[in-house]
Amino acid sequence: MQKTNASPLELLVAKAILLDVAECRLPAEARIGESDYAGKCAVSRTPVRQALRWLHERRVVDLRPNQGAYVRIDSIRARALLRDRCFKKLSVQASAEPGFVTVAHRLRGQLTRPGEWSGGLLKDSEVARRMNVSRTTANRALSLLAKENVLEAVPRRGWQRAFFTVDEFLHWYDYRLLLEPAALESAWANLPRGEAAKLLEDTQALLNGRQLEKVPSTRRVALDTALHLMIQRACANPFLRRSLEQVEAQRLISVSPSWQVPHRARKTFQEHAAILRHVLAGDRRAAGAALKAHLENARDHVARMAREQNLQRLGNEG
């Protein structure tokens, strides 16, 4: 990447976009929402537009008249660009939002990825070292995540992931049933139809496979979350979008493994395919109804599992 005279705020937004591409939250041809990154980086839309022009000059994004900005590179190329020295001096404090909020946002994203911060306790000293911030900032970020029910404090030892009980998970579904259909309504005009078509193609390919259960879990999880992340990114209401970010992080971080809805993969992807077909057909009402039915079916499955496991436990005790 060539030398730049871009402002720190422009570089901050550019780095945030590249990080999302590098971490596969923004695949190639995905639409980049200006309001999304204005909220994420706590800036106005002006630095976002400047950052998009800066990235366009470097052939990272396409600026399409009356359509917006679209990613044109893959995650490997994005990771290479992030090593450029123009990003080296940027710290989380370059954001206009409080440093601990930015650290919490970054840490939340890292905790949702397999292999990151896996097992054991989180120490404020380790968070401070890896995020290049003070221990006070790290502690405030960890406390914020605890308020979101993502982490819980272990006195005098550190922080650990907070795992849901089955009742908490069912309440989580009730809350998500209020949020996500409303987010889909808010996102409707911004939904990237090209991304939806590719997602439907990938989902159908997975369903057409003979042994879905033998597909690596990382691929199934990535495809499972892709639809919900697409709705989240396209949501025009920043309050809904931030609430969805927290809810999704809770699912990936705080949900006990025994309640991650196993044995439902095929039905899940069939329901995702139905939602995507309605999106591509432009049928907003049907897409919203299909999304609501999908969430209700998943919730009912968890409740049924809980009843079955409770009966089995009582039988064993008897």
Explain what the structure shows.
It is a single chain. 64% of the residues lie in helices and 6% in strands. It is mainly α and 318 residues long. It folds into 3 domains: 8-93, Orthogonal Bundle (Arc Repressor Mutant, subunit A), CATH 1.10.10.10; 98-161, Arc Repressor Mutant, subunit A, CATH 1.10.10.10; 166-317, GntR ligand-binding domain-like (Four Helix Bundle (Hemerythrin (Met), subunit A)). Strands 1-3-2 form a 3-stranded antiparallel sheet. A two-stranded antiparallel sheet has the order 4-5.
Class by SSE composition: mainly alpha
Which architecture of the largest domain per CATH? Up-down Bundle
Q: What is the CATH superfamily label of the largest domain?
A: GntR ligand-binding domain-like
User: How many independent structural domains?
Assistant: 3
Q: H/E order of the elements? A: HEHHEEHHHHHEEHHHHHH
Strand content: 5-15%
CATH classification, class level of the largest domain? Mainly Alpha
In total, how many beta strands?
5
Write the SSE topology:
Layout: H1 8-22, E1 31-32, H2 34-41, H3 45-57, E2 61-64, E3 68-71, H4 75-81, H5 85-88, H6 99-111, H7 124-131, H8 135-147, E4 151-154, E5 158-161, H9 166-187, H10 193-208, H11 217-234, H12 238-254, H13 265-281, H14 284-317
Antiparallel strand pairs: 1-3, 2-3, 4-5
Helix pairs in contact: 1-2, 1-3, 1-4, 2-3, 6-8, 7-8, 9-11, 9-12, 9-14, 10-11, 10-13, 11-12, 13-14
